[in-house]
Amino acid sequence: MNKSSASVTALRTIRTEITGLEALAKAIEADLGRALEKAVESIQAIKGRVIVTGVGKSGHIGAKIAATLASTGTPAFFVHAAEANHGDLGMIARDDVILALSWSGETSELQGVIAYAKRFSIPLLAMTCNEKSALGKVADICFSLPKEKEACPNGLAPTTSSTMQMAMGDALAVALLEERGFSASDFSVFHPGGSLGAGLVHVSDLMHDGDAVPLVPQNSSLRDAIDELSRKRFGCVGVVNSDNELVGIFTDGDLARNLDKNLPDLLVDELMTREPKTIAPDILASAAMAEMNNFNITALIVTEDNKPVGILHMHDLLRIGVA
Prior knowledge:
By secondary structure, the chain is an alpha/beta fold.
């Protein structure tokens, strides 16, 4: 297959799946939206976890949905429907709720899970394209997804259908997240590793404070400011007034631009930048990096009520993987 025909196939596949997602959006505006609201209420009412189950491609999508739920504050895990029939049903408790995925709704491996749910009165949610299927009929709440054309030219490989299942799972997870008021700080608890976790660290976790903060009083000699600049090595010095409020910043760039002047005779106030860029300690590290990139600077004085409490350098952000 040459490049041009591959591109044509790719575009056709994506557009077919977009059509499926558009149909899903219309369904949510109608009856599917009410099912989603009931599911959110049902999950919020339980004391246990969301047990997601399925086989085949629906099983793979189910595992992703369980991971997304868990990472956004809804306790959840995946139980393979076939393994459930060989002992894993014991992983499901009476305080849980089950979300079963089957595009046809007739998956034989789900019979054991269905029977177990009914025996112990465990709420059963179904995600299928056929609400009149065996699964759809017994479910307490049924996500009846629109049956759209698969992107597979043979109409066999789950493509559009699995895309819609995953999107519906995302919709459920985000709806639960918003109902719970799940914040970025909460999110960081479940994502401590990698660049994502690094971006959820706060400025206060990384900043240098106390005597490490380069500061000089207002009306200090430029020599004193340069000495502080050399000792602390952040590339800048904050200038504070008698109330310890930040009134300016003097940088090594300011020094370089004014080497032609008689520096020993100058005060830091004459060369400092007034109203410098600052950041609050409770801001996310990722936002601090964006601020530095936007203004092409390498350090930010951290302030509370305009009083310096720390300093953050770009190297601190790069060290933990914020990029």
